[in-house]
# Entry
Amino acid sequence: MLFNYKALDQAGRESTGAIDAINVDVAINSLQRRGLVLSSITPEEKRGFLNKSISLFDRVSSKQVVILSRQLATLFEAQVSALRVFRLLSSETENAYLGRLLQQVADDIQGGSSIAKALAKHPKAFSSFYVNMVRAGEESGKLSDVFLYLADYLDRTYEVTSKAKNALIYPAFVVVTFAVVMILMFTLVIPNISGILLESGQDIPIYTKIVIGISEFFVHYGIYLFILICIGAGFLVRYVRTPIGAYSYSRFKLAIPYIGTLYKKLYLSRIADNMNTMLLSAIPIVKAIEITADVVENHVYEEIMNEALTAVKGGSSLSDALGAHFEIPGIMSQMVKVGEETGEMGEILKSMANFYRREVQNAVDTLVSLIEPAMIVFLGVGVAILLAAVLIPIYNISAAI
# Structure
């Protein structure tokens, strides 16, 4: 249960925040152990429907986490205490939700928690990869370096992912717009023209009959088709949320021609970059593999990394464990083997991450350059067929008069 409180700290400054506890007595005891003198404590009211809807918009973007990480690195490098760092950033951030999270992190640190443990309570903003990197930084005393690593890593990931997403926005918009225009044509324009053509008594070409048939289908059964599509989409979303469905969807994304290759390079870049960043921060390789499996965001590669984790725990080398899967290119497993033999695993993975990141960027650029002419041809052919099916019969009618 969440309790909101107002209190005075040992310096006499007023402090406000929230604490999660089983009951009010436990909450009071926990706050008093932090050295706070309570002035009020009240349970948070249950959220209504409107508040729940608003809470759906509470999120922290990748870019905001990148900026936060750079700010943390700068402040820790300046020898500012952890408590003061998070108090300061909680009041300075423009994202109110992130500000509340940082305030709660500061409260937990003041109560004796480690930074990593405090961040781990907010998985929506800080992934397990992020938390474990911070934990390694606390253990090694290199928090400022770790936050710089995190900022650079998240910046690279954000750049590659956003570029891949942005490349698909334009064609998706064009396709949706074209579909809406065609539906309006079939339901509003073609029915009026088809009435004129049928009343003329002239022979109608087969392609015109097909267009008229499609128009009649949309007019009489379009609403049922729409309902069927909505129901099918609902079942598909529910299926994708199941373990089997999620794995099938991940496999399907990798099987799409050309797009699947782009996804493969994106996930390979993420695997190499994750492990490189963690190994450079002195995180053990077993832990690095385990965390990479959690953050790769594809169930096929997650399964591969989990199987590799089991094999490495059993005494196998990472290169042999990865080489057993055809989804991992031979060049990657061979490069990992070189890293194992030379003791330069981190640098080898860094090179692989840079290689696949460039491959993703080149693939996205190529995709964008191919999509635009393909869309022009597709839309041109569609419009030409529709106009020909309508205008040629009208021309024949006017010529016969």
Remarks:
- The first helix runs from residue 24 to 33.
